[in-house]
Amino acid sequence: MFEPQGPTLRELAVQALSSVEHGYDLLAPKFDHTPFRTPGHVLDAVTQALHTLGPFERGLDLCCGTGAGIDVLREVCRGRVAGVDFSAGMLDRARRQTPEGVAWVRGDALALPFGEAFDLLVSFGAFGHFLPRERPALFAEAYRVLRPGGRFVFPIGAPPPVRSRAYWMLLGFDSVMRVRNAVWRPPFVMYYLGFGLPEASAELTRAGFEVTLRDLPELGRRPDGSPRARAVVATKPHAAETPHARETPHAQES
Question: Same structural domain for residues 212 and 93?
Fold first, then answer.
């Protein structure tokens, strides 16, 4: 499951008993050697989907971690790209291993330090860190920092069948995390079930987005022929344009 350079069981235990922010600060040096990093084939599939939607100017990787999604933005965006995350450790790792020209910004996804500055937002594997009550604020922030016509795009997998081993493994993990958070502080929010395509579409629509889907055929199909994953494409309508929309980010880089 982990590469030899990955974290030890003890290191994972320490991380799991920390807050989300501090836990990722601790994990950052070895994060890219864990299965938590978004796989390259997922990034490639989303890149292909974005090529059919672009080109774009400015791009932002929301909850960027060590920067796995930045290469996606660099390929489809003609202007400057940025990554935002609340973990200083993850940002430091991203900065060390990414070419110059990327703005790395430390910030809270629920209160983004930008104006209406981006044409494209992407996010990979971050939504399990947000409780259901927090997602309206998350999507409202994504909507706010996009220019009219801008798009918020992220992959979402088909749910595993209830009778599958994967489903019960994820359910077991979520159950352990709920018990851990009930008896230990600070909480570590990371849940795999409970945020699927219906929830994503409904919550993005309530935030003001127009939502469409793109199949990601590169990631395979299920036995019934349906795709194993889709890209959610949430577009901020042009009607949302305001006369004083900001043209550039005003955040300071971390």
Answer: yes
